[in-house]
Design goal:
The complex is a heterotrimer of chains A (823), B (519) and C (295).
Chain A (H helix, E strand, L loop, with lengths): L1 H16 L5 H4 L3 H7 L14 H4 L19 H16 L10 E6 L4 E4 L2 H9 L6 E2 L7 H10 L6 H35 L4 H14 L5 H8 L5 H10 L3 H5 L8 H21 L5 H7 L5 H17 L8 H17 L4 H18 L1 H27 L6 H5 L1 H10 L6 H22 L5 H19 L1 H14 L1 H11 L5 H14 L1 H40 L17 H4 L3 H11 L16 H4 L19 H10 L6 E3 L1 H11 L2 E4 L9 H11 L19 H15 L2 E4 L7 E4 L10 E8 L3 H5 L9 H13 L3 E8 L3 H16 L4 E9 L2 H4 L1
Parallel strand pairs in A: 1-5, 8-9
Antiparallel strand pairs in A: 1-2, 2-4, 3-4, 6-7, 7-8, 9-10
Helix pairs in contact in A: 1-5, 8-15, 8-17, 9-16, 10-14, 10-15, 10-16, 11-13, 11-15, 13-21, 13-22, 13-26, 15-16, 15-26, 17-18, 18-20, 20-21, 20-24, 20-25, 21-22, 21-25, 21-26, 23-25, 23-26, 24-25, 24-30, 31-32, 31-33
Chain B lengths: L11 H6 L9 H7 L15 H5 L11 H18 L3 E3 L6 E4 L9 H7 L24 E3 L27 E2 L1 H9 L4 E5 L3 H4 L6 H7 L7 H16 L9 E3 L2 H8 E2 L7 E2 H13 L2 E4 L11 H18 L18 H8 L25 E4 L15 E7 L8 H9 L16 H7 L3 E8 L2 E9 L9 H7 L8 H4 L6 H7 L2 H6 L6 H6 L6
Parallel strand pairs in B: 2-5, 7-8, 11-12
Antiparallel strand pairs in B: 2-3, 3-4, 5-6, 9-10, 10-11, 12-13
Helix pairs in contact in B: 6-10, 6-11
Chain C lengths: L9 E6 L2 E4 L2 H11 L4 E4 L12 E6 L1 H9 L3 E5 H10 L3 H38 L19 H5 L10 H4 L3 E3 L22 H9 L3 E4 L7 E4 L10 E5 L8 H13 L3 E7 L4 H6 L6 E6 L5
Classes of the chains: A alpha+beta (823), B alpha/beta (519), C alpha+beta (295).
Organism (chain A): Lasiosphaeris hirsuta
Protein name (chain A): tRNA-intron lyase
EC number (chain A): 4.6.1.16
Chain lengths: 823, 519, 295
């Protein structure tokens, strides 16, 4: 009881003093409370507030429960009275106290909310919208910051997710491998002389022999099924050398390899950059010796080392063998069988990177991943401890991170050498990149130009950078951080420059040694190149991780500080359009700024991601924080928006053009009209709005469940109209998937033969199976729709509030009945 | 807790794989879904998932000889297994005769009422015997198998001199099923019934001797024994009275279109035998009695009004909202009350739909789980009510169809112990009435369970106040009393917060697969 | 098997508007030579209390029946009428022929029973000491715990072989009425669903096809005989201009991954719809596969 007293008093105090605090929040520590205030910042406060307190409000309305009266305890009565009096004297402003503001966006058919306060508030109150930058809870900002300041740059759950996928891939790959090996054995045992086994032997031998013969094998990969990865796989190649680095005792070694390996890669990368449809061309043309084995091996390794990253380097040879095995099925039968099996699991994650619509997310995700690899290295490098290939992967970017964070002396020599190496390969790039397809060359060409520029002008490269660094220090930091990921010629180069510059103090001295060292390094490298190529390549290819490929996509990051200055106008325009804050990544003149580019989704929805803010780069983080503007924007689905404004009155929707609030009545017609595609115009009598407008029907269902206290969310992800949460994703999995079934039982409908399209049984089985797979129950929600005349009368009489009464809703729970389980 | 978890279909299955999930197919079902390799068919054991799991399949033809051989063997195995001919050992031969039109003119009503007079019937429990569908019964069993517990029906209380008095008659599906499983030898009569079953057959006495309810297999055997003897001693005119029919012939005579008297549609037969094989007891559902028609509309109206009541008491809401009057609220209940505008379905004892079920969406079979004391004459109310539809000819039922079908079944509330928020999912998923629909796609059968849901019965918002009331830590038992909710909901939701803070799936999944364990 | 496979005419029995086949030779033949396995739907007399293995007859899709007819390797027989006509007015020759064949089968059955009995006796002796004798003294019957009630019903466990059993040959129920009814049948038109073109398209490319309902599609498609192979695709057929709801695509894609199949959907180009009936089948069908990216 004492506690109760204490609580209730605080309630009183709170509600009296600041009306933004609810009864609940009052009981929290003050810093926690502002996290929960509807107008507070989107971040959950570091001291972990119990979720059920953060997500206290089921609607944007707060209640002010009076403290309890215990007859046994007279004091409680006093509380009650006091609280009551306080609320009478200085009443909290009538609920809903906060009216959120959103802008109707006809293109996405959603209402955009940009104010971070509103976003988090709405999210916490069970309005999830069609989507947001963060795929789940809109804490993009927080996580972005977390990512940027933490060297490892991704959140716990991201890692967990990855780990999970990892395991899956591994398992599948293992299965496939064993299967294939079994078959191989069979075949060899039966000693059948068929085309297939013959093919194997060839490809197998290829693995070891000079590469030239392999380009066909690689070309084969551009089968309908595997086209995108093929290029991607090759792209992977860029990495092995780098990761290899520390294994060679000699500090110079890595760079040599870096050069050799990166030669072939550039074009695929360019291609991927703007989704040219025929990367295959590029690949096959590749005449470069190093290409062959690398590419061939790329396949198995990209997968294998997933499995045995830890002990990867122990037995390189067997790996190659299975590489051959692995190639075969793909080469001979593209879409089916093991090929498919393998393609499915492995390519899935990888493939996505190349699929246009989603590549952005993947890019991001994987980029963060690389940084994940970087974690170990940052420390190991300093303390010379043995380093597994996994960490080594990340060498290129971690280097720079080391620098951008006050960099350690050991790091330096390495990447100074790295610089010239970049130049050299830039030179190499030049000739071959002449023949990219029309799609590519605009992009590639331009790249080469400045790639080309650099060898002959080491100094000016830095000069520009230096000048840049003065006024745009912070941007450099951003740049450098994102920069470091691309292994691309100029990308990496600039990455280093900028990163050097980013620390102005050390910037000046560093430049000198590079200039001095660059040229002779070049020479030395060519010499080594010849001898070491073969053995190196084989071992190398065993080790790298396919993830590194993602780095290639960093094209979409702001290329280099010097360039980013060129386009302030471009930078601003998209910012306004879809709320992408371009201050971080201004679209470079060469990469056409697609809207996607600016989005940087985060894989993890984790609500309480605790960003391990302790990172080597102390000073930068603040700069980042300062500059990083919140790109998060929230797309309320029409149903949600209408519920908020019509039912709760906690949202006012603005007209995109006039920015004047749209009255609810017009909003309704607007939504109804846009629930058709193309949107219907209200006036045209023939195709005008109907009582069975998709929006109306869906809203009826949404409102129905919402008014019962359920939290409906759009279920597109699961192939259903809605999924129902009891409280919200933070607390429970949604237990039900809802399919809206418009129906026209009324006589007036039936006489006009108006029938809803009949869904097939197989459709139902499908939906049910999918839901069963994610442990949800299927609910068919039949909405019996009133015939037009009745509906129209109701609308005239009492508006939508009355008209909705006419919608008769019946839930039908559907489930497979298992004859075996129930007998 | 990763929120994406329910986005990843691959994370859930771990759970769903465990038989927790009702929807997750059982091992056997998985097998039934696949085409089975007859090499693994064993006729002397009960086939189980484990024994068959061994059958490894490939994803593509990789031209190994082993693969080809394996395939060849499988095909051979199939041929051998399927070439089996049904043999009836003389000692337990059961013979049935096909007399399609014997009961064609039979007035069904009479049969039902007449049943009451039967002395042997336990009068105290129920003196009305289940509907017999006599007109559809086309196969008469030789020997008196009145005691057969599960199949067939005899017309009792008939004058002694009636032909084949007390004989069991089979429905087409029953006959065909028995023929298929090799338990019945179906004959085509070349003589009339009176010659095959002369009035003075000794069995009559026999049949009287046996009280109908007693399943006496042994005596059954003897009886049949006699029968066989009587027509096997004279080998000569063995085929004098008729000739035995093949399975093909049986199909030809017994399978027909829906509604054909004395026949059964292939789909219905497939469902019937599928369930019989699975061990259920099945009877044809009696034809729908029309008694519910008149008052249904009034019921619905009343329903509709009653469902409106909560909002009805409120002042007329503003045409375009906001529904919720701005102001100071002490609890969420009044807030949510104001949102109620759409009528909520309220399940009631009386069927609430104005429509009557129409084929195919009408209950055709009554189904019981295997139970020791079950008999075709004495049995509890059905465990399941089943409609049979064709996957191609029909689609997902319409509003009318499904409501009519479900409302035609008696109320089937969930388990009494399903109270409190913890069991809400169980309650919801179970629903208030339910019917099964067997969707038949060329012999492959999917059973779907449609249940009358009533989310309106679960007022989630009532617990918000208890959730939000100031409380110490998690178990806010005391704090609850501060909120403005009736004590009924109080104890229901008292444990809520602690449960909710533990995210992920709680007890529900386990609950709802016990749903069907008792009707 | 003995019959030359080349010119075999498969008898497709049309019963109650469905298409069935009863002759094991036919079943084996169409499976081997025409990539049609249809659905085994009959109860297996050897083990009638399980649903995993099913026996004759098979039920054919309308599509399958149609395909066989178009290929001129099968004929449709309206069984109900044929049987009735045969049975009602049975001329002595046909009758004797039928009875003769019956006799044969009964003789073989007799032999079968003899050694079966011998076996079971041996078995019985073996099991004598072990307690588990109860359920399996009759090789033809099975008594799973789940349901053995029919046993208590018609064929009870043999206490001791009845004396009469010696006298008579055992009765048999032949599977087919081949002897009874004349082969060769009416050429009837077969209504095929709209998905027929897709079916034919896949079939002509050597895929085996079974009903896909369980997996949420029209067909599930195997790269070879399902005896040996896993299904590769869930196939759905759409109209050429049919609007495919986005939700359905999502479902399909997810489903595909869920059941480890890739989701295939196809349609026939309306323009060539008529021409295609005769000329190279399936050339006018376009198919696509979708796969859920599962990010």
């Amino acid at each position: 009881m004492e506690e109760d007293m204490a609580e209730s008093t605080t309630v009183m105090m709170a509600s009296a003093n600041e009306d933004t605090i609810t009864g609940v929040e009052a009981t929290l520590p003050s810093n926690a409370s502002d996290a929960t205030i509807t107008t507070g910042p989107p971040t959950t406060s570091p001291t972990r507030v119990p979720l059920y307190k953060i997500y206290a409000l089921p609607t944007p309305i707060r209640t002010f429960p009076l403290p309890t009266f215990y007859p046994s305890n007279p004091i409680s009565l006093i509380h009650l009275v006091i609280v009551w009096l306080r609320q009478v004297v200085s009443p909290p402003q009538p609920e809903p106290s906060t009216i959120h503001v959103g802008v109707w966006d006809p293109n996405t058919r959603s209402v955009h909310v940009k104010d971070p306060g509103s976003i988090s508030a709405l999210w916490e109150q069970g309005f999830y919208g069609k989507g947001s930058l963060s795929r789940s809870e809109p804490n993009w900002m927080k996580r972005e910051i977390g990512r940027r300041e933490s060297t490892q740059g991704n959140t716990v759950s991201e890692e967990r997710t990855e780990a999970r996928r990892e395991e899956r891939r591994q398992a599948k790959w293992e299965r496939a491998k064993t299967e294939l090996e079994a078959i191989e054995r069979q075949i060899s045992e039966e000693a059948l002389t068929q085309v297939e086994p013959a093919g194997d032997i060839v490809s197998a031998s290829d693995a070891v022999l000079p590469p030239s013969g392999n380009s066909p094998a690689v070309a084969e990969l551009e089968s309908p099924l595997a086209e995108p990865e093929a290029t991607e796989e090759v792209a992977f190649e860029s990495q092995p050398p780098v990761q290899q680095a520390p294994e060679e005792a000699i500090p110079v070694m890595p760079i040599k390899e870096a050069v050799t390996a990166q030669l072939p890669v550039d074009h695929p990368i360019e291609v991927l950059a703007d989704f040219s449809v025929k990367p295959s061309v590029q690949l096959v043309i590749q005449p470069k010796p190093p290409v062959g084995p690398a590419e061939l091996l790329a396949l198995p390794n990209s997968v294998t080392d997933l499995i045995r990253r830890p002990q990867a380097h122990e037995e390189p040879v067997p790996q190659i063998v299975e590489a051959a095995l692995f190639c075969r099925p793909i080469v001979h039968k593209a879409p089916v069988g093991p090929a498919e099996l393998l393609a499915l699991p492995n390519s899935q994650a990888d493939l996505v990177a190349t699929s246009p619509q989603s590549h952005e997310e993947e890019t991001h995700e994987e980029e963060t991943l690389i940084q994940a690899k970087a974690v170990p290295i940052c420390r190991p490098v300093e303390s010379k401890s043995p380093i597994g290939p996994a960490e080594l992967l990340a060498l290129p970017n971690c280097l720079v991170e080391l620098m951008s964070g006050s960099l350690l002396v050991k790091g330096e020599p390495k990447d100074f050498e790295a610089v010239p190496s970049q130049f050299q390969e830039a030179a190499h790039t030049l000739p071959t990149a002449k023949q990219p397809t029309a799609a590519t060359n605009g992009h590639a060409g331009s790249k080469l130009v400045n790639g080309h520029a650099q060898p002959n002008g080491l100094v000016n490269g830095y000069a520009t950078g230096a000048s840049a660094c003065v006024h745009r220090e912070v941007e450099d930091n951003d740049a450098s951080i994102s920069e470091t990921k691309p292994p691309v010629t100029n990308g990496a180069c600039n990455g280093i420059t900028s990163s050097i510059l980013s620390d102005p103090a050390s910037g000046a001295p560093e430049t000198r040694p590079i200039q001095g060292e660059g040229p002779q390094l070049l020479k030395r490298r060519q010499s080594v190149l010849g001898e070491e190529a073969q053995p190196l390549k084989r071992r190398k290819s065993v080790r790298f991780s396919p993830r590194v490929v993602s780095t290639t996509f960093q094209h979409f990051d702001p290329p280099s500080p010097s360039r980013s200055t060129v386009s302030p106008p471009k930078a601003s325009s998209p910012a306004s359009s879809n709320g992408s804050a371009t201050t971080i990544s201004p679209p470079s003149p060469m990469t056409p700024p697609e809207p996607v580019t600016s989005l940087e989704p985060v894989t993890s929805p984790e609500p309480e991601t605790t960003p391990d803010s302790v990172s080597e780069s102390g000073p930068e983080t603040y700069a980042v924080l300062k500059e990083l503007s919140n790109k998060e924007h929230f797309q309320l689905a029409p149903e949600e928006a209408f519920f908020l404004s019509f039912s709760v009155g906690a949202l006012s929707v603005m007209d995109p053009v006039t920015l004047a609030p749209i009255p609810t009545e017009d909003l309704l017609t607007l939504f109804r009209a846009h629930s058709y595609f193309p949107p219907r115009t209200v006036d045209s009598s023939v195709e005008s709005l109907q009582p069975h407008d998709p929006f109306l029907v869906n809203y009826a269902v949404y409102h129905h469940f919402r008014s019962l206290g359920w939290v409906p969310r759009h279920g597109m992800k699961f192939g259903v109209d809605f999924i129902l949460y009891q409280r919200g994703p933070v607390f429970d999995h949604s237990e039900f998937g809802v399919m809206v079934m418009p129906s026209f039982s009324d006589a007036q409908w039936t006489e006009h033969e108006h029938q809803a399209p009949r869904k097939s049984w197989s459709w139902l089985m499908g939906v049910n199976r999918v839901l069963a797979h994610v442990l949800k129950g299927l609910v068919l929600v039949y909405v019996d729709i009133p015939p037009p005349p009745v509906f129209d009368d109701a609308m005239k009489q009492g508006g939508i509030a009355v008209a909705l009464k006419l919608y008769n809703i019946r839930e039908v729970m559907v489930r497979r009945f298992s004859a075996n389980r129930n007998r | 807790m990763s929120l994406d978890d329910d986005d990843m279909p691959t994370t859930a299955p771990i759970a769903s794989a465990s038989a927790d999930q009702e929807d997750a197919p059982t091992g056997d079902e998985v097998l039934e879904e696949e085409i089975q390799d007859f090499r693994l068919f064993r006729k002397d054991k009960n086939i189980s998932a484990q024994t068959i799991r061994k059958g490894e399949k490939d994803f593509e033809s990789h031209g190994t000889r082993a693969q080809e051989n394996a395939l060849e063997q499988s095909r051979q195995a199939m041929k051998e297994v399927l070439s089996y001919t049904r043999v009836h050992q003389t000692r337990n031969l059961v013979r049935g005769w096909y007399f399609p039109d014997w009961w064609a003119e039979w007035p069904e009503k009479e049969d039902e009422s007449a049943a009451g007079g039967n002395a042997t019937q336990g009068t105290q429990e129920k003196d009305k015997r289940p509907f017999a569908h006599m007109r559809d019964r086309v196969v008469i069993l030789e020997g008196s198998s009145v005691s057969s517990t599960y199949l067939g029906r005899a017309v009792t209380s008939q004058p002694k001199e009636t032909l084949a008095r007390g004989k069991d008659w089979l429905l087409p599906e029953e006959a065909l099923y028995l023929v298929e499983r090799g338990s019945l030898d179906l004959w085509w009569p070349t003589r009339g019934l009176e010659e095959i079953f002369p009035p003075w057959k000794p069995d009559v006495k026999d049949s009287e001797a046996h009280p109908e309810s007693e399943p006496a297999a042994t005596s059954e055997a003897e009886v049949v024994g006699h029968a066989v003897e009587s027509n096997t001693v004279n080998e000569a005119d063995e085929y004098d009275q008729g000739i035995p029919l093949s399975v093909q012939a049986a199909y030809s005579l017994l399978i027909g279109n829906d509604g054909e008297r004395g026949k059964v549609s292939l789909q219905k037969f497939q469902v019937y035998s599928n369930l019989k094989r699975a061990g259920y007891n099945i009877l044809r559902a009696p034809p729908l009695t029309k008694q519910c028609t008149p008052q249904t509309p009034s019921v619905t109206l009343w329903q509709w009004l009653s469902s409106l009541l909560p909002s009805g008491s409120e002042p007329q809401p503003r045409p375009y909202g906001p529904l919720i009057q701005p102001g100071l609220y002490r609890s969420y209940v009044p807030i949510y009350r104001q949102m109620v505008i759409i009528p909520r379905h309220k399940p009631s004892a009386a069927p609430s739909s104005p429509w009557l079920p129409e084929d195919p969406f009408s209950v055709h079979f009554h189904i019981w789980k295997a139970a020791p004391k079950w008999s075709k004459l004495r049995h509890p109310p059905p465990d399941f009510y089943l409609a049979v539809v064709d996957a191609q000819e029909t689609g997902v039922p319409t509003f009318q169809e499904i409501t009519a079908l479900v409302d035609a079944t008696p109320p089937a509330p969930g388990k009494p112990e399903w109270t409190g928020p913890g069991r809400m999912y169980a309650r919801l998923k179970h629903g208030h009435r339910n019917a099964l629909v067997a969707v038949v796609d060329h012999g492959i059968i999917n059973y779907m369970r449609f249940a009358e849901g009533a989310f309106g019965e679960e007022l989630l918002f009532e617990r918000f106040d208890s959730r939000n009331a100031p409380r110490s830590g998690k178990g806010g038992g005391r704090a609850l009393s501060s909120s403005v909710i009736d004590t009924g909901t109080l104890d229901k939701f008292s444990k809520q917060p602690s449960e909710l803070c533990v995210s992920g799936r709680k007890v529900e999944p386990k609950d709802n697969n016990t749903l069907d364990d008792d009707p | 098997m003995a019959s030359p496979m080349a010119d075999r005419q498969v008898r497709i029995s049309r019963i109650g508007g469905r298409y069935l086949a009863f002759d094991i030779e036919d079943v084996v033949y169409i499976r081997r030579h025409h990539g049609i396995c249809a659905i085994l739907m009959g109860t297996m007399p050897q083990n009638p209390t399980q649903n995993i293995f099913l026996g004759l007859p098979i039920e054919l899709y309308a599509e399958e029946a149609r395909l066989l007819i178009d290929k001129k390797v099968a004929y449709i027989a309206d069984e109900a009428t044929e049987h009735l006509s045969q049975l009602k007015t049975m001329d002595p020759t046909a009758r004797s022929a039928y009875l003769q064949s019956l006799k044969m089968q009964r003789k073989t059955a007799q032999l079968g029973l003899e050694d079966a009995k011998a076996k079971s006796k041996a078995q019985y002796q073996r099991r004598a000491q072990t307690i588990t004798a109860s359920s399996s003294d009759n090789p033809n019957r099975t008594k799973p715990a789940s349901s053995g009630r029919e046993d208590s019903l018609f064929d009870s466990q043999p206490q001791q072989p009845a004396p009469v059993a010696k006298l008579a040959l055992p009765a048999v129920t032949p599977t087919t009425s081949n002897v009874l009814v004349a082969s060769g049948g009416s050429s009837v038109s077969i209504q095929v669903p709209a998905s027929y073109p897709l079916y034919r398209f896949l079939n002509t490319r050597g895929y085996y096809i079974t009903p896909g309902l369980r997996f949420g599609g029209d067909y599930s498609v195997y790269p070879g005989d399902p005896f040996r192979f896993h299904a590769h695709y869930m196939a759905n057929s759409y109209g050429w201009d049919e609007k495919v709801p986005m939700l359905d695509l999502v479902t399909s894609g997810r489903l595909g991954t869920a059941v480890k199949k890739s989701f295939l959907f196809g349609s026939q180009q309306p323009a060539t719809a008529i021409a295609a009936e005769s000329a190279n089948p399936g050339e006018d069908v376009r198919v696509f596969c979708i796969e859920w990216a599962g990010m």
